[in-house]
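Margin note: ligand = N-carbamoyl-L-aspartate.
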Amino acid sequence: MNLKGQHILSAKQFDKELLLEIFQQAKKFEENGGDGCLKGKIMATLFCEPSTRTRFSFETAMLRLGGDVVSNFDMMNNSSFTKRETLFDTGKVVSQMVDVIVMRHPVPVALHELAKGSEVPVINAGNGPQDHPTQAMLDAYTIWKEFGKLDGLTVGVIGDLKYSRVLHSQVMALKNFGVKFVLVSPKELQLPVDLKERIDFVESENLSEVISEMDVISVNRIQEERFASKEEAEKFRGKFVVNNQILARAKEKAIVLCPLPRVEELPTEIDGDGRIRFFTQVKNGVFVRMALLKMVLG
Ligand code: NCD
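Resulting structure:
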């Protein structure tokens, strides 16, 4: 798949061939470092929601390839959005100056509005509860490196499956490899039906019963900022905790993934367990984003 000049808005755009191409390129960067291929190119990061990893990861990736970065991490309060400039016009304007735009926004359609105006590729760094495609790419890369394949694995997807954009993108990316999913969530926070329709899955509310089936244990926190109120989110906090007691029942060769931040669902008591990979994921994210930027910018 030729990504040159393409917007990357959703993990639904990915196919197996594209993901394998990204993995191979990311591995080359991991082994040999950046190659200066984006010298003279500029990336703008437009963030309208908090971020620690994703923005630093994109920016580090760009810098490691010899490119430059202009950044606004408080677009909501500190840009012409405060003067009612439209997303379309913002996309149009920023794209007159830079070669690629990376955007995070709490409202899913905002990204699409901005992309319509933009004359350069726009990459989704998280659009509300909908999609976080590059996180899914780095999750898939982490699994691929670990197992040497993705086909035929059983992936447990645990937590807030209703609002987690990471888990939505993750299932869309991994379904390209014939993965079987074990979905573990409270009834009220199940995976949206339109995603369920596309995957091979079983559902459970009993983590300790199904943990032993999983090759990959993929966990995300309750996305409390998406709930109507804090009290509403509170009901689900700490429902599914992957602690030492649970991990004692998991496969010896399983791996534990989390996009981070982690809160009570991944207590620090498991940090000595050889199966956790959440900090490795952060490192892998830079190589994957380097690969993606190279492909998008040609
Ligand atoms: C996630 C996000 O922002 O969706 N974080 C990330 O990008 N690594 C996950 C989360 O906030 O729970």
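Residues 278-297 form the longest helix (20 residues).
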